[in-house]
Amino acid sequence: MATKKRKVDSECRAFNDECIWKYFFRVGQDKPVCLICNEAVAVFKEYNISRHFASKHKNSNYETMSEYERKQNVESLRKKLSGRQNFFKKVNTIQEAATHASYIVAYNIAKNNKAVSDGEFVKQCMLQVCDVLCPDKKNNFQTVSLSRKTVTSRIEAIDKNLASQLESKIGQFKFCSIAMDEITDINDTAQLELFIRGVDENFETTEELACMRFLKGNTKECDIFREFQEGLLTLKVAITNICNITIDGAPNMTGKKSGFLGLFNQNYPGNNAVLLHCVIHQDALCKSALNMKPVLDAVVTLVNTIRSRNHRQFRDLLQSVQSEYSDVLYYTKVRWLSAGCVFERVWQLKDDIVSFFHEKQCSAECEMLEDTKWLSDFAFFTDLLCHMNNLNVKMQGKNRFIDDIWAHLKAFKLKLNLFAG
Prior knowledge:
The protein is of the alpha/beta class. The protein folds into three domains: 12-86, no CATH class; 173-277, 2-Layer Sandwich (Nucleotidyltransferase, domain 5), CATH 3.30.420.40; 286-420, no CATH class. 54% of the residues lie in helices and 12% in strands. It is built from 16 helices and seven strands. The protein has helices at residues 18-23, 46-56, 67-111, 118-133, 138-142, 148-171, 221-235, 251-254, 260-267, 286-289, 293-308, 311-320, 338-348, 350-359, 372-395, 402-420, and strands spanning 25-27, 32-34, 173-184, 190-200, 205-215, 242-247, 274-277. Strands 5-4-3-6-7 form a five-stranded mixed beta sheet. It has a two-stranded antiparallel sheet with strand order 1-2. A hairpin with a 5-residue loop joins strand 3 and strand 4. Helix 3 (67-111) packs across helix 6 (148-171) and helix 13 packs across helix 15 (372-395). The longest helix has 45 residues, at 67-111. It comes from Araneus ventricosus (Orbweaver spider). This is General transcription factor II-I repeat domain-containing protein 2A.
């Protein structure tokens, strides 16, 4: 029977402390290492260590030194080694900090919708500030890479990380709801936005923009439904966990047979999802209910007149009287908050507007601002729209739940009763 070979390196030999000053050795990770030439010996045996010293450093000055001199030189060699190790650790720390800094800048560039090329401008500003505050640290700032390519890769890495975190949270959802909205960007490209809100077994809620799907070509019901399905596959959302889907009021969404609603029920029969239209804010219907059109048309005409004729002179007038506002606002019909903001701005600047038109000898353009009855209606609608805008803002944003929205609506109804009284 063959005998088992003996492995010397697995015998757990102890390192003799005398070998440190006798042969200028130190304990490495698994092997003894020479302090002079930084070579390692196979095992912790004094014979191997002494043989290395005799063969490699026989003719050196270390062999003729006394015990005291050897111990002093060992300490000196140890300090030099420690200094080299600390230097490389410091370099690694600076490089890690520089990488972290570039990620911070890239994250803020993406968060604020800035161009990726702005990273180079940010670095230039950092270096100039460093010249003033801490010139000795300029090399550290110089190592921060903020080129266009680097910022792009950083943003892509952050995006993948956030997507991975969201996917992990979605996997823990017990129930979730999805909100869908179709928008068009500045390039006239239709996009389908999917928002998700879910709750896990610990009743912790998560609300995020889950994904954005491009609708290339047509935006028919089948196209929207296909992108919806692909979005769910990407996010790994189980249909059985969806308890609500909120859609907008477009015909391609609300059709019970050929619309998104009908396609969803056909493809997922027996689903437990409640399909809802988005909440139509009452302030969007306020103008028709209160017969606000005459006042609104007059205010819009007044604003358009100011901005189309002698606009610069009007702004100069506001600047000369040190007005709180520098201009009037355009009215945008598609924005729910626009009417209230326009009314409030014109009301604040009504005296300056009257003075401006009188100077231009165009009193007829602003005669309604000198009509007491019209001003009463204008003031009423301005106050009402401002209160509705405040309500609208309270109902928007992340982490708004039905009990919070209901509390705001109930409080607003009580305010209306007070206003009526």
